[in-house]
Amino acid sequence: MSIGINKKDIFLRFVSYLEQQKILYCVVGDARKFPNQIDSDVDIVIPEKFSGDSSRLVNEFARVAGVQLVQQVRHERNAWSFTLYWNNCDGVAEFIQLDICGDYLRSGKLYLKAEILLCGREKAKNKSGGERGFYVPAPEKELLFYLLKKVSKGQISVQQIQHLKEEYFKSPEASELMLRNFWADEDVRRIVSGIKSSDVNSMLTILPQLKKGMKRRERISLRNIIGEFVRLVGRVMRPTGLMVVMLGPDGVGKSSVGDGVFNTQKAVFSGQQERIHLRPRIIKRKDSGSKDSVTVTDPYADESRGGVASSAKIIFFLFDYIVGYLLVVWPLLVRNGFVIFDRYYYDLFLDPRRYRYGGKIWLARFAGHFVPKPDLIIVFDASVDVIHARKQEVTAEQTELQRFSYRKFSEHEKNCSVINAEQPIEQVVRDVNQVILGYLVKRNNKRFG
Fold it and tell me: Structural domain of residue 249, as residue ranges?
């Protein structure tokens, strides 16, 4: 799916789509460089009555525009974050993130109604007065909304204060009048003073006080309580994060590819990125030279363990994987994180000598059914000559045996892809990213139709 479009095209087409659907909207936040330069999320407010329809609207727009919806995260009862992707003419993935909400809520508490922001909206204009193709709130309302976000988060930067300053001087009297609906006169004077002076330290100091001093505007209703509970249950039951396992013979290039994949997937996963070698390591081994440590110079140097010790290793691995998944991996996935395992439990029976496993292979395979399953498995493959040109830790015969085991394994595993690792690293990274994005598109379609 390679098409000659960019973020500007998609953004303008989406706001035009909303107008065609007869849905009022306004773009909030620092949109001074829009639409020519979009370096951040696009925050859009629509009427509260349409907020529950956001998923359908964006899914339909994606089909019409010929792009793919790879991620949608519900971060409030009535607020969603959507990530759209397409390949540019060079085959490189590009993304735009649309954050759509109705009333402005935080943790189920109502801060500001959408109808206030939408009333009196105006066309965004550049410094010369030319229209930029989308609507924004009136300056005093944009200032209020933007400040409320900073107050609720307790954070603000110099650039964000500059945005507040520009909005304030567009309409000073109306801005102060709007602020007085939420804060006492003394608080308003401190806000205006901090904005005019662009003093980030003074603004950071007063944010907690502003949160406490609001005129009881933070309201929570039974509807919002129930909606927030349903949202949290949905996030837990259907995590938006992703767990990927990378497998392959020694020297095939798994570690190098991981870095490039992380860089691309930052646009999709807002949570923490984590790379784990082999197992979660809830139980840490003191002997750093053990065969499941990260650095191995001679993986086949020691003899395999006996049957009893090998069975004990299976039990040890099972405990580490199951408990580690519940305590480490699962919380990351719920928070829209991205986890890559460099090797996994499967290596225990695919490459048993590396882990000194001398027990029955069928037993290791059977125990593997109780190990948490990854969302995706990526198997890297290359010729023996290419692998040995990169790494000579094992013999050519052992490398060929590994290749056979991994390829055979890939034929019977669900959501498993084989990647040609003989290509330049940039192309390998690109292929892996396409597999991940393709999976996310299918997952989104399955969940939301």
Answer: 238-448
